[in-house]
Amino acid sequence: MYGVPKFVASPNLQQLYQQGIKLLGGMGVEAPAIEAKVLMLKATGLSEEKFFASPERGLTRKEEKKFGRLLEERLSGFPLAYVVGQKEFWSLALKTPAGVFIPRPETELLVEKVLELSTKGEEIIIDIGTGSGNIAVALARELPRARILATDISAKAIRAARLNAKIHEAANIQFVRGNLYSALHGLNLKKKVDLIVSNPPYVSPEESDNLPGPIRNHEPRRALVPGRTGLEFIRRLVSGAPAYLRPGASLLFEIGQGQAGKALALFDDRWERADSFSDLSGIPRLIRGALFGV
User: Fold this and answer.
1) How far apart are CA 167 and CA 56, in angstroms?
2) Which of 134, 164, 172, 199 is catalytic?
3) Quick one: which H or E segment has residue 266?
4) Taking the chain, what is the end-to-end CA distance rounded to the nearest angstrom?
5) Is residue 199 annotated as a catalytic residue, yes or no?
6) Which tens digit of pLDDT belongs to each residue from 6-27?
7) pLDDT digits (tens, 9 = 90+) for 148-198
8) CA-to-CA distance for 152 and 71, rounded, in angstroms?
9) Is the Cα torsion angle 137, 279, 229, 81 positive or negative in sign?
10) Catalytic-role residue among 101, 233, 253, 267
11) Distant-in-sequence, close-in-space partners of 106: CB < 8 Å, separation ≥ 6
């Protein structure tokens, strides 16, 4: 159990920053310098440029206390995004309140692939399991003519996603609460959708036991673990998509390491093709299925 960190008397920015790095490093944080900087910027309200330009700047007592409180929360095991209340995705600062799935940088590959497939016109895109709204908001910013529907079973997630859409002026998103395709009932979307995208839960219970503590103990389990095998949500995602996709349209979703073969096997003869795409580490990370055209 970590208590409130003790700092040297009247520390300046550099001294407090270095102490933060030492404490976070001792906790086993992979990038202690980056995390200490993020906490310092949150505590002081400084820009990154001003922070590095004035290392000898003194801190007010209020700033020092706030940094200590934020550091204490992080040392207690809370994810950094929950401690500071936001996470960057697609160069957008997104609000990430506790209980909402935190966006991952590897999910940007999904946004990239959607933009490659997009007509940049008045198409319909559905984001299943939107979480913080990271995918939907990023796409809305890049594709202002598209009609985007973002769904989630969590009321808390929908509230966070709405807030992020408002902050980033993504007015072309409609948010609907519901589980998978049940959220779309009554919206007159069958055989009309151009793209369905999702970062679904895909972690098995056994894999979840080996996740880092901040993820395992604090992020919403149903956003991570869909069932016994980790493929339950993906199976329903694939089987239900043809009812909504127009001929020739595509389904794209993220997968976990080692799931590509099993995920590709879920596509039946209604699909013209199914492919996997790897992330920058060479790990198959994304599946695309394309329906037969007219």
Assistant:
1) 34
2) 199
3) none
4) 62
5) yes
6) 655 567 899 999 999 999 999 8
7) 999 999 999 999 999 999 999 999 999 999 999 999 999 999 999 999 999
8) 31
9) negative
10) 101
11) 254, 279, 285
